[in-house]
Design brief:
The chain has a two-stranded antiparallel sheet. It contains three helices and two strands, in the order ββααα. The protein is an alpha+beta fold.
Length: about 70
Amino acid sequence: MTDVKAGVEYKINIEGNSFLLDSKKFQLLESILDTGSLTSAAKSINVSYRTALNYIEKIESTLDVKIVNTTKG
């Protein structure tokens, strides 16, 4: 028998909306919390800034809530 793992490890529920996080997205959110920087967080989990930003945008659009404040510079 083959073990199947879906890759989803965490779930965010906000006001009836939910988003399933794989470990990479969860690590990104943790790292943003720790570093206060999307750039630093992306580097720490070995993804590009653009990929990290896409992860955040997807989570925010699905949950219909802003989870990360971004500023230029």
